[in-house]
Design goal:
Elements: H1 8-47, H2 61-68, H3 70-101, H4 107-115, H5 122-132, H6 141-153, E1 165-168, E2 170-172, E3 178-180, E4 189-195, E5 218-224, E6 246-251, E7 256-261, E8 267-270, E9 278-282, E10 301-302, H7 309-316, E11 318-319, H8 320-346, H9 350-358, H10 363-391, H11 395-400, H12 406-409, H13 412-421, H14 427-453
Parallel strand pairs: 4-5
Antiparallel strand pairs: 1-4, 2-3, 3-9, 5-8, 6-7, 6-9, 10-11
Helix pairs in contact: 1-14, 2-14, 3-7, 3-8, 3-10, 4-8, 8-10, 9-10, 10-14, 13-14
Length: about 450
């Protein structure tokens, strides 16, 4: 029996019926992508070939300007630091946390805490970390922790500040110490007046009074020599003693004969003093300031010794602000890395892991020889995704870094915004920066799409 075939016209009508629904579904999306993504991309490439007004064709001059400006080269350097350091660190931390969560109790609570920063916008996270990095140890968390440790090894004095001055009986000594002007012998009394000290700095103080001398001893008082209508060099009524002042009894040849600390009323006592002439020294440690904080977001850099000139030194130095920003981004993205790698761990064939353990492999050998090779595709996806994120990083840099140091920690996306959209900008060069950033992102993005499909 001969085989029946469809008429050509009927086949064409069937194909048209299939194409029309596809166009109805995809048409709006394609049109929207063309308007929102396609046209701006093509227009930006074209705009990068014109001057700042857009009226004169300049060819590749904007790209020459781009690679001939020190600030832009610094932005490229900072992006390179981000690409080299951040993706590797965040992938490593995500792997460590993902492996740990399989071996600890309360794993769900731990994952929630680590992943919580992902719920906060990047701009808000930058504001949070700008407060964390505050230079004042009383406000910034990082400097508060560092200051607690630093002050434990180098105890600050009770009476710090540039306004502390001697009013009577004292002169400047070596290393910031204060030395009594008059010499004293056993049984003598020394009065040492200081001013420029606020009452709030001496909460334990009581009213100062002149002590009585004792044979074989040197007594004295150190007090806050200030009261309305009072006389300098005299202990007036109501003036406070200075407690906790560290003092040294010094022989005429400069050697120490004893040390003591003043009481709450400012009095002090050196006992068992041999016959001779002495001076009383107010130790410089009393005025030693505590930890003042590190300007993590300032212009300080880890600058190598270089003979390449100012430009070379500027490009080779690593701003401290960039390191601080990387730490903040690790806080944000480690949870994402942990969750993705944790999902990869959950999907591993447990029989393979058990077989490795039965063959005598330890935990470290199993992780290095079995788990990591099986997780390689997942780790690659996380790594490439983080590279894309840091190539176009912008909001964290803007929110965390003060304007005074943004030039040292700038990146390409921030430089594009600064050149093209702020002040008397150059839209041609700004478009060139945008095109250059697009060229950097596209290969990595295509690699990521290939990994995801794999």
């Amino acid at each position: 029996m001969p085989r029946r075939t469809k008429p050509p016209g009927r086949a064409h009508r069937t194909g048209s019926r299939r194409v029309i629904p596809v166009l109805l579904f995809l048409g709006p999306a394609v049109l929207l992508l063309g308007v929102v993504v396609g046209y701006p991309a093509v227009a930006t490439v074209a705009r990068s070939l014109y001057d700042t007004s857009g009226g004169r064709f300049v060819g590749l001059d904007n790209y020459r300007t781009l690679f001939g400006t020190t600030t832009t080269l610094i932005a490229i350097r900072n992006n390179a630091i981000w690409v080299i350091v951040f993706p590797s660190l965040v992938t490593f931390l995500g792997l460590v946390f993902a492996v740990l969560t399989e071996r600890i109790r309360w794993a769900t609570a731990f994952k929630t805490i680590v992943f919580a920063p992902m719920a906060v916008s990047l701009f808000a996270s930058g504001v949070i970390w700008r407060i964390v990095y505050e230079t004042d140890p009383g406000r910034g968390l990082v400097n508060s922790v560092v200051g607690t440790v630093a002050n434990a090894f180098h105890t600050p004095g009770h009476y710090t500040g540039p306004t502390v001055k001697a009013t009577s009986g004292l002169r400047s000594g070596a290393g910031g110490a204060l030395v009594s002007t008059a010499s004293v012998s056993p049984g003598g009394i020394v009065q040492l007046g200081l001013t420029g000290i606020p009452p709030s700095a001496i909460p334990r103080a009581t009213t100062a009074s002149t002590p009585r001398g004792a044979p074989g001893a040197v007594d004295g008082v150190v007090w806050r020599d200030f009261s309305p209508g009072g006389r300098m060099g005299v202990i007036d009524r109501g003036e406070l003693g200075l407690p906790g002042v560290r003092l040294t009894l010094q022989r005429a040849d400069g050697r120490a004969a004893g040390s003591t600390t003043s009481a709450d009323d400012g009095s002090f006592h050196f006992d068992g003093v041999a016959t001779g002439s002495y001076h009383v020294v107010v130790d410089s440690s009393n005025f030693q300031p505590g930890f003042q904080g590190v300007d993590w977001l300032g212009t300080r850099s880890l600058t190598p010794t270089s003979a390449l000139g100012e430009t070379g030194r500027a490009l080779l130095s690593v701003p401290l602000a960039v390191i601080a920003e990387i730490v903040a981004m690790l806080w944000i993205w480690t949870g994402f890395s942990m969750v993705v790698i944790g999902a990869g761990l959950a999907a591993l064939d447990r029989e393979v892991l058990e077989a490795a353990r039965m063959d005598g492999a330890g935990e470290w050998q199993t992780l290095r020889r079995v788990t990591l090779p099986l997780l390689a595709p997942v780790l690659a996806v996380v790594l490439v995704t983080m590279i894309i994120n840091v190539l176009k990083i912008f909001d964290v840099i803007v929110s965390i870094t003060p304007d005074s140091s943004q030039q040292q920690s700038t990146v390409l996306a921030l430089e594009m915004w600064r050149i093209g959209f702020t002040g008397v900008g150059d839209k041609g060069v700004g478009s060139a920066v945008s095109v250059f950033l697009f060229v950097l992102v596209v290969p990595v993005m295509l690699l990521n799409v290939r990994r995801i499909r794999g």
